[in-house]
Every structure is written in structure tokens, then in C-alpha cells.
Amino acid sequence: MDTMMNPQEEFIFRSKLPDIFIPKNLPLHTYVLENLSKHSSKPCLINGANGDVYTYADVELTVRRVASGLNKIGIQQGDVIMLFLPSSPEFVLAFLGASHRGAITTAANPFSTPAELAKHAKASKAKLLITQACYYEKVKDFSQENGVKIMCVDSAPDGCLHFSDLTQADENEMPRVDLHPDDVVALPYSSGTTGLPKGVMLTHKGLITSVAQQVDGENPNLYFHSEDVILCVLPMFHIYALNSIMLCGLRVGASILILPKFEIGSLLGLIEKYKVSIAPVVPPVMLAIAKSADLDKHDLSSVRMLKSGGAPLGKELEDTVRAKFPQARLGQGYGMTEAGPVLAMCLAFAKEPFDIKPGACGTVVRNAEMKIVDPETGASLPRNQPGEICIRGDQIMKGYLNDPEATSRTIDKQGWLHTGDIGFIDDDDELFIVDRLKELIKYKGFQVAPAELEALLLAHPEISDAAVVGMKDEDAGEVPVAFAVKSEKSQVTEDEIKQYISKQVNPTLQSISFLLIAVFPLVADKRAHHDFDDAGDILQENKTSVLHRSYSQGTVRKNPEEKSERKVGRHVIEDVNLTLYFISLMIEKMSMDQGKDMYQTQEHYCFCIKAL
Prior knowledge:
Elements: H1 28-32, E1 43-47, E2 53-55, H2 56-72, E3 80-84, H3 89-101, E4 104-107, H4 114-124, E5 126-131, H5 136-146, E6 149-152, E7 161-162, H6 164-167, E8 184-186, E9 189-190, E10 198-203, H7 204-215, E11 229-232, H8 239-252, E12 255-258, H9 264-274, E13 278-281, H10 283-291, E14 305-308, H11 315-324, E15 329-335, E16 342-345, E17 363-364, E18 369-373, E19 387-392, E20 399-400, H12 404-410, E21 417-425, E22 431-436, E23 441-443, E24 446-448, H13 450-458, E25 463-473, E26 477-486, H14 494-502, E27 513-517, H15 532-541, H16 545-554, E28 567-568, E29 571-572, H17 578-593, H18 602-610
Parallel strand pairs: 1-12, 3-4, 3-5, 5-6, 6-7, 11-12, 13-14, 14-15, 26-27
Antiparallel strand pairs: 1-2, 8-10, 9-10, 10-20, 15-16, 16-17, 18-19, 19-21, 21-22, 23-24, 25-26, 28-29
Helix pairs in contact: 2-3, 7-8, 10-11, 15-16, 16-17
């Protein structure tokens, strides 16, 4: 029988686990090392690159010295330091030392280009860059032009500070710092649901809440304990490793095995050598492990938990990994930098585990609320109805740095953070993600903002229009595909555009695919405010039936009388050449609905495009 839904009714979902006490008045560094006396002599940080070990007592003392050293070189409460480092013990010590000093840490991918780094450092107003000597040339010009200090953790070039200036400081000279729970302690950068990367202000209270939601309580959602050895092969500049590996591992007194980079051969050997019990990874790493010809050469029976995050874990890969690691619990979580980052966690990881369903990304974390809303009306939806996932709790960000408009678009007046992801909650409180409203492309677990790549393309004098979309890929999850419209009379080639882009993006993105499109006239003044039936007619008139099929599946407009701006995929029609707009949509829908069966190669795409 059909039932009428009360328009005033709110459908709010909570964890299956009971709420817990969270000590939100502590500074972050105090909270994560609160149980120091229980395990002061046990290994805390293990450097997988050289075997060096820091005990918990070593870490606690060094953190206080780093804080004192930061004060001595002029870093004040509220100042920003930037870590331009691969995962390393120095990353952990600098982050916690900055927290102790009352400073804020932002971190950048070491593969960033000098231009990307400068933009990040300038936006965050970083006062100190901590890096390795091999990256000095990338940071030198920015440092000299802006008066920002450079510190190296290994050999220091002339004019640079050395990390020993911090680690050998007198811990007793550190002045008292009065910290407030709402003070910002971390400033990761994220594109959010749209646009270019923005500084995400995470507070002491917020990160403590997020860590506690995962590992605190009698039946923790994420059962780490002090006898665990936790693998950290993911980059600490990413919030996943920073929060769910580094901070959670420190909180429970586990040993953290840190690898500066991912190499499958050495990874398997180190898992065996150190008897790793917890392996938090992303799907591409999980795939590499499962496919490795050397897997059976190593004893990996110590692994009791394989935790996937950063991107969806496909059922086929999940089944393959289960067969390879029959002794381990396998599942996934769901996070977003702005959410602190964890929204949902698989309850198979709990101390007292629950049964879970394939494809689910967990249940909402404790001490938080989740709801699913209609993207058009904002009304909350009951179980089994897909809508935008929203989260509320003390763990979410304070806001975007110096961007109140973007903050208000993401966090509403009732305190709900809107994720831009589409999902539903089933009858067993499990969350399933089915689609994405937001623009981001997830390449090997990393955020790629299409707007950033489009801006680079549009800066080229012979490119008049551009669009970047994601396409599914077995190894990477998604890969960026760029479409560029040549300026009239331009003779530029695809290879020239690729070379132009490769000089400006970090190596991670140099595998991007490009399709160069001939010049198209704008259609009927771009038809910005015509409904999609009119747009469909335009496509039919141009004999683009394949595009029309994709377009008709992609429309999100429900009211045919509505005349406001319409969005399909990422672009508003008035912002892009209409033809290019629907080409982007075709690929976007193809990647979601048809995989690579219909259009396997770039030549097929070109054929469809040229058919216009």
C-alpha cells in the first residue's frame, strides 16, 4: 500500500553502537598520547626505509622539543607550517610538535609542481616549509620571494634550517600555550563538492571527536589495540592516513610501520618482517597486492584487518582479496576531508563485529547524525531511498579558510554538512553510495578537481573551451579525460597540448588522456535557460543520437515547468559550449552505466565526436 510521507518528518540515522564520552577539552597532542604511561617503552614509529625505531617515550619527548624549537625560530600560536614531505617519522613529530605549539599544519603532495606548491603555501600563509633536500629546488623560489623559512629533515642546503634545530631544542623553554578546543590544528586542502582546492579548517575538538568515534569505547568501531602493528603505506599528507592511521594508531598505543612510498615488493616483505596486523589501504593498493606474483612467497598471516577507503571497493576485487586473506576482516569506510574525515565505518572492524553486506561502506559513526536528503527539495528521506548524504557532529570542519560562501554552501544553518555524494541507508542501517553530485574525480584515491585541469587547458592560447570528466578504470578507480576545443584556425596537436600540461601538473596526473576536438560553433546562444527537451531536439537535429541517449539518462530536473538553471553532470549549460557539454555528459554516463564495452578506445570517442 502506498503511504503518504509527512513533509515535516525528519529521518535521522545514528550508529548501531552507543554514544561514548569524548574528552573534547584536551589539545589533540595530549589526547593521542594520553595513555603514554602504559606503553612508553614500546615501539611507536618504525621507519620502514631504514629500520629506525622511536618508542612512545621518544616521541613524547621529541614532540615537546619540536614545539620549543618552533617557538625559538619564531613560529607563534596560530601560525601555519607546511609539511612538504613523504610519510616519515619527521612528519609525525612535526605535526604533533606544531599542535603543542598552538600552530596549524598544512601538508602538500611532494609531487606537486612549484606552481601548485606556491599556490597552496600562499593561500595558507605558511610561515615555514619543512621538506627534504631533494625538493629544495621546488620550494626555493617561493621561499625567496615571500620570505618563508625552509627547513630540511636530511641534508640542508645553504640558507636552510635543519630539522635538528627543532629536535635538539630545550623542551623546558617551551612557553605555556592556552589552546581552545575550537582552535584549528590541521589545514588539509580539498575541492569539496565543487571548484578548486580550499583549505579545510579542522580543530582540536573535531579531530579528537573523529578519532574517538573510531577507536574509543568498550566496543570500538575500529578495533585497534596496543599489540597491533599498523601499516602506513598511504601518504600522510592525505587525511585518511593522517587521521585513521597516524592519530588512531597513536591513541591506542600501536606500532606504526611507515613507508615513504609504495613498492609492492618491499611492501610484502615488510608486512612479513614486522608482522603487520592492520593494513589500511586504497583499492589500487589492494589490487596490486592481490595481483602480485610474489604474494604467495610471503607469510602474511599476521594481517587481521584489511581496511579500504579513499574510493569505492568493487565486489570483484573484494572477493579476490578475501580469497587471498581468509584470516582477515575486510571492509571499507567512507570519508570526506570536510567531515573530519570519517562518516561511516564497517562494523566488521568492531571489537564485537557485526555481519555486513557486500558493497556497503559501513554505518554512521558514533556521536554523530546522518540523513539522506532529496537534492532538489532538501527533504529528508526514509530508508532505501537514494539522496544526498549529510552528516552532523562535532567532528566536521570549522569551515573553509577565508571562504565563507563555500562554507555556507557546504554546511547549512542547521549544522548539516552536505557531501555531494548520493546514497541510501538500508533496513540494517548500512550505507550504500550509488552516485556523486560533486565534481571530483577520484584517481587512485586522490582528489582531482576538474576545474583545476580545465583552467590549465583554458590558459593555452589555442584552446577556446575545455572539459574534464572521469572515466572508470580498473587500476586507478577513475582516470581524468580531458576534452579541448581548438581555437579557430589553430594547428595545435594533441602531443603539444599533452606536453604543455605535463609541465604544469604533478607526475600523478601526467597519465591523463586527451581528446582534441575540432572547432564547434555555439548553438543557439548556448540555450542557457531552455529545458532539456529543447536540448534533446538540438542533439537530434545534429544527428547525435548516441549523445541523446546518454543525455536523457542524465537529467536531474523533475519539474518540466522549471526554468531555473539546469545541471547535468558537472556543467551549467551557460558555462560551456553546448556540444562539448553533452559530449562530457556522454562520457560521464558511459563510465557509470556501460563501462568500456561500448566505447573502448579513444578512437571510438573521436569517431562519435567527429560524427557531429
